[in-house]
Amino acid sequence: MLMEDLQVCPTYSKDLLQGNRRCRDKVLVSCRSLLAPNFSSSPWRGEPTSSLDTENKSASILHDDHEGEAPSPTAFDSDHHGPHREIFNKGDENDSKFKHKGTDKGYLTDHKYTKLGRIEARLAKARYSIREASKIRNLTSNLQDPDYVPQGSIYRNVNAFQRSYLEMEKVFKIFVYEEGEPPLFHNGLSKDIYATEGRFIHEMEKGRYYRTYDPDEAFVYYLPFMGFMLVEYVYDRGSNYNLDPLGLVVKDYIQVIAHKHPFWNRSLGYDHFMLSCHDWGPLVSSYVDHFYNNAIRVLCNANVSEGFKPAKDVSFPEIKLIKGEVTNLLLQSTWKNKDQDMQIYEELPEGISYYTKLRSSKFCLCPSGYEVASPRVVKAIFAECVPVLISDGYVPPFSDVLNWNSFSVQVDVKDIPNIKKILMGISERQYLRMYKRVKQVQRHFVPNEPPKRYDMFHMTVHSIWLRRLNIHIQDQ
To answer: Where is this protein chiefly located (predicted)?
Structure first.
């Protein structure tokens, strides 16, 4: 077991905000959503109550029920509830028609759709296809693919995942707003701390995948500002953590977008997304209620205690993070220099390679940093070391698709004194299975340049695609 110098994440304990009810005239969030089958009677997205367990439940249509887990119903097995019951029923009938029509053209020509209606029809067809694929509960996808065929227990449901991925590649389009000037907009670091965020911005700007320059063709709309650049150029370091200037930049930007384009007001932000690895990303989004409550926020700091909502937000992999203190102190005081099996370092001794230590360790401890995200998770996966996620409230990346319980260990902060006992309780046979799965899951976390199918860039877009499948937007 190995852990680098440790870090911690303070929490702000911000109350989760409720969605604005005025959206009901325009945006329908289906209670038979692909990501949230166990909704209450309200058609709105449910609020998360825990981290990984909540994400597991919210993703059950892509869930594999082997390894002793009880089968969970698909998103379309529950009864209809709520004030929009007739609308939901009509939507399900539309989905089922694809079984008989068989093509987009046949369905679309039978209905005089607006441009938005055509997009919603394509989404309905995709939902139907994913639903049908999810019924096949084997461990290897039955779909052909020249690059990769998902298989094994690292996935919740291999057929649902691959069908969803292929549907995304076929139809998904993203519009990138051109308003805003660098360095705050359209700009990002490609190396160092916020590399994943910068690479995503650069890739979307290049337009090699998914980007459309016709906003009427778009399924989602990208707000291309970078949290780190806001901090670097707008934040006053002598202001005692006054984030108002950063939040006001975001607020003004969205006001410009809403004034120049009809799309934000049409959906009140439900089909818009941001991406931020900076720990203040979630906070600056709170300066616009509809942004915080409705929009898809792709965040490295995927902490439910700070308002991250797994049903609508996306957990994004971290590459490198600033150092912190609190979890570090807890782990060091408990384990440093006290047990040879638990090699805990404040700083690595001279001449010892961190990567070599990772490669030679069976389990790699991945505590939180200043915020809940940690680059150690990806480092452990690349080193073929089983990651041990030490956090309260962290939702791991791609949890809609990946069964993290099959290749990682989750430990609450309160159980840090019991870590050795927990890990010693994992049999050698079980460890070897987890080790093989870590090697298998690597492909989904590689930030290739240029991107390759099923890698980190495409998996992030797929997570956004899944959230867009969760809503139905109507013309006013």
So the answer is: Golgi
